[in-house]
Amino acid sequence: MPARPSALVTAIRGVAPRAFAIALAAHAAACSRHEIDAGAHGPSPRAAAKGAGAPAFASPEAARSGARADGGVGDASAAEPARAAPPKDLDVVLITIDCLRADMPWAGYARPIAPRLTAFAEHAVDYTRAYSVSSYTSMSLGGLLAGKTPGQLSRDGYFFGTYGKDNVFFPEVLQREGVGTLGAAAHGYFKTAKFDQGFDAWEVVPGLKWSNTTDENVTSPELEKIAERLLGDPALDTKRFFAWFHFLDPHDQYVAHEGIGPYGKTARDRYDAEVTFTDRYVGQLFDFIAARPWGKRTAIVVTADHGEAFGDHGRYLHGFELWESLVRVPLLVQAPGAAPRKIDARRSAVDLAPTIVELMGVRPAPSFDGKSLVPEIYGAPAEERDVVLDLPATSDNDKRRALIHGKYKLIASNTKPTYIQVFDLDADPDEKAPLPPRSPEAEEMRARFKDVERALRDIPAYQCKENCLNGAYARKDGGS
């Protein structure tokens, strides 16, 4: 969540033409036993129980071969060797952790602050250059659920925004095909955001203290208990399901916890202790999943809604900008039959909607702009593609948008005129020295960005408008 009223990208198809052992060895072993060719996995008891009610879907085989659901054929070669595929009775659990930076121990951070997640990463497909859709919760999770940049979504325009009912969120797509959908979160904002759209069961940790400037609650123990209760429903033993749990404790304020650290007195030290605290309860959830009858046929996806800044560009916390520290996040996938490996190609959380629905054998919604990661999770080459970061204007921030193409990143600020900077992320990962505006690389990136801007169909907020956006309401009332 944001630090005050005041994330990471969208791989847009068709634009820029120029261009988890569950942290247990037992689970890893179980996953390896599922390494099967497409079509070799017979119907599970749960699938048989659904009978004629089973969803129609484009099979993973068809997706990998290029065959379309309507019988057409894509460009993929028919001679491409068969790869492992998701079991047809797969369940999916998505775990998102607020403010979890990309520089975690499995990515080289020296302090061992997340032992359970680190063990999980050893047995996962690890996306080393993953991005959130935006830089704070409202925008990044809206984009994740919709498989689109948030500027293209119906929303009221306030910083703690509410999404319109006409958006298509991927849990709805699963729900319509008979998949059970359940979730829980740990911040009061999740009661009003409409992130519950498409969920059969949705809970928010009770008794929370509300603040629009910070978060004083400690919620991981209670959220993990809610997750166990929801996942412990005996009905899930015979019904396929998708579950989403959003842990919040790494979010400011950084509360001290008995038995953890202290690592030091700096903001990063205190943040690290909060990550260790959250890791403990995420690990407990891993253990619970592993012990369930369906645990061995469950894919687990772990990621974050955005990162966190500790003095980067003079900023702390998150939101308002699209610097790498705010939008780089972990992305780890453990799935039955998927061999652990690292994928260095840049990827966006906007790809998770089509990925999760394909893992469950369901057709993606036509509105999804993201591209499924399932083929590369199961061994296909991971080609490079562009990534878009999106921060629409709200009641408390101006518009920002960024494009990443290869090693180059363009950030556009909606000032008058639009202020554009281009960075070479390989040579300048901290984004301190923009390229000269007239350099060939900067000019090429500006041209690509124009293509992206033309392809994205942004819609205006339906409530907070000209006299509200970017703090205009405060200025009108005499505020600063």
Weakly predicted, low-confidence segments:
1-45, 47-78
* Integer count of domains: 1
Number of separate strands: 17
Give the full name of the CATH homologous superfamily.
Answer: Alkaline Phosphatase, subunit A
Shape: globular
Question: Portion of residues in helices?
Answer: 10-25%
**CATH classification, class level:** Alpha Beta
SSE-based structural type: alpha/beta
Describe the sheet with the most strands: 8 strands, mixed
Spatial order of the strands in the main sheet? 5-4-6-1-7-11-2-12
Strand content: 15-25%
CATH architecture assignment name: 3-Layer(aba) Sandwich
Taking all Cα atoms into account, the compactness measure Rg is 21 Å
Structural features, described:
Residues 1-45 and 47-78 have low confidence and may be disordered. This protein has helices spanning 25-32, 45-50, 60-65, 115-122, 137-146, 170-176, 220-231, 267-291, 324-327, 352-359, 374-377, 440-455, 472-476; strands at residues 91-97, 125-127, 130-131, 180-185, 201-204, 241-247, 298-304, 309-310, 316-317, 328-329, 331-334, 341-343, 347-348, 387-391, 400-405, 408-413, 419-424. It has 480 residues and is an alpha/beta fold. The protein has a single domain (1-37, 84-480), classed as Alkaline Phosphatase, subunit A (3-Layer(aba) Sandwich), CATH 3.40.720.
